[in-house]
Specification:
Layout lengths: L1 E7 L6 E7 L6 E10 L2 H7 L9 E2 L4 E8 L11 E4 L8 H4 L9 H6 L10 E3 L2 E3 L12 E5 L3 E3 L6 H4 L5 H13 L6 E5 L3 H12 L4 E5 L3 H9 L4 E3 L6 H8 L2 E6 L4 H9 L1 E9 L13 H6 L3 E4 L7 H13 L9 E5 L3 H9 L5 E5 L5
Parallel strand pairs: 11-12, 11-14, 12-13, 14-15, 15-16, 17-18
Antiparallel strand pairs: 1-2, 1-4, 2-7, 3-5, 3-9, 3-18, 5-6, 6-10, 7-8
Helix pairs in contact: 5-6
Bound molecules: zinc ion (2 copies).
């Protein structure tokens, strides 16, 4: 079948072109996409930093309807509306224990540009085209996705709000809810107010944190964070974060989405006794972190990373939908809609900080 997909090479990051898509295999479905969010990981992959082969079709926040199922499929049917999340095998120990972001095949099923057997569903002029990014490759009108990364959703919610639940919003919310699990009344600081950080702010508010400090270089972002539940917005260079935190008595929790070593080191230094720092940013380079072992020991600090906030999408996406329906997740404040044809403008707006979560709307296929 002929479809349209944004093909990424380092020189031409997102060029929409006609490509061929094959039939879904066992454990896969063909999804006609309604929308796909753009995540920073797409841009990191486009830069070549993640080692994905190129040319490739990226995109890993797809939402759409199943139009064909693989052989022997019992769980999903044609017509099901699904949110696509990250790839996981569904069989290994982490997958069986509801931590699929640590799947033993995670690198293969998310970043290798092919299926586990090395094949790919996409081709161009008869040549195989790398795909299966996060087991989906949703910068396209259609995607062959693994059923292990599909979550059924209702027809009542707009596609542009569902798309980012598959990665960015889930990562921020689950990092707070599942990894940090902050005590009510506690003090948390969130470093970086993109989609992940702002989702973390919403989760901290839902968790009943007493102080939620949102830190970002962009004052518009910290203002939005305050609308979403942050108690204070801090702009480095304008405000004195260290003085504020000292006055409050230190942080119980810190959450970093910037992946900058200097920010992470500062966050660690602001923790009070037995404080916990969680890092969710994906650095484009391998810069070392300097940690004072004396402070680490004497203060009983914890520092850890997380992939996708340790979430099991099948459990966590339905929880986010409940919060949205209860009016607790104003996702529309994060999302900007773009036509798929405007993907280059959407990426540029994201890089410039003008769009927090650009979501590409696929052309109507009917
Ligand atoms: Zn697995
Ligand atoms: Zn992502």
């Amino acid at each position: 079948m002929k479809i349209h997909a944004a093909v990424t090479t380092r020189d031409n990051p997102f060029t929409i072109a006609p490509v061929e898509i094959g039939e879904p295999q066992a454990g896969e479905c063909l999804v006609e996409l309604e929308a796909c969010g753009i995540c920073h990981t797409d841009l990191t992959a486009a830069s070549g930093a993640l080692g994905t082969p190129q040319p490739i079709v990226l995109g890993h926040e797809g939402v759409g309807h199943i139009v064909a199922t693989g052989p022997g499929e019992h769980e999903f049917a044609v017509g099901d509306r699904v949110v696509l999340s990250f790839g996981a095998c569904g069989q290994c120990s982490p997958c069986q224990h509801h931590t699929p972001s640590y799947c033993e095949q995670a690198a293969l099923l998310n970043l290798a540009g092919c299926r586990a057997d090395g094949s790919t569903a996409l081709s161009r002029s008869g040549e195989p085209l790398a795909a299966h990014f996060f087991s989906q490759s949703s910068f396209a009108t259609h995607a062959v996705a693994r059923t292990t990364n599909m979550v059924k959703v209702g027809s009542d919610l707009p596609a542009e709000l569902l798309a980012p639940l598959g990665c960015g919003v889930m990562t921020g919310m689950s990092s707070v809810m599942n990894v940090l699990a902050p005590a009510p009344g506690s003090r948390i600081a969130i470093f970086g107010c993109g989609t992940v950080g702002l989702a973390a702010v919403m989760a901290a508010r839902l968790s009943g944190c007493g102080e939620i400090i949102a830190v970002d270089l962009n004052p518009q972002r910290t203002e939005l964070a305050c609308e979403l539940g942050a108690t204070r917005g801090v702009v480095p260079g304008r405000d004195d974060l260290a003085a504020l935190v000292t006055e409050l008595g230190g942080l119980h929790y810190a959450f970093d989405c910037t992946s900058h070593p200097a920010v992470i080191e500062q966050a660690l230094g602001l923790l009070s006794q037995r404080g916990v720092l969680v890092c969710a940013g994906l650095p484009g380079t391998h810069a070392p972190l300097q940690v004072d072992p004396l402070a680490l020991v004497f203060k009983g600090l914890t520092i850890r990373g997380t992939v996708e906030g340790d979430a099991d999408p099948r459990q966590f996406i339905p929880r986010m939908l409940d919060w949205y329906r209860q009016g607790e997740l104003p996702l529309e404040k994060l999302v900007s809609r773009y036509d798929f044809a405007d993907i280059e403008n959407a990426v540029a707006a994201m890089k410039a900080g003008d769009a927090i979560k650009p979501v590409l709307m696929m052309p109507d296929q009917n």
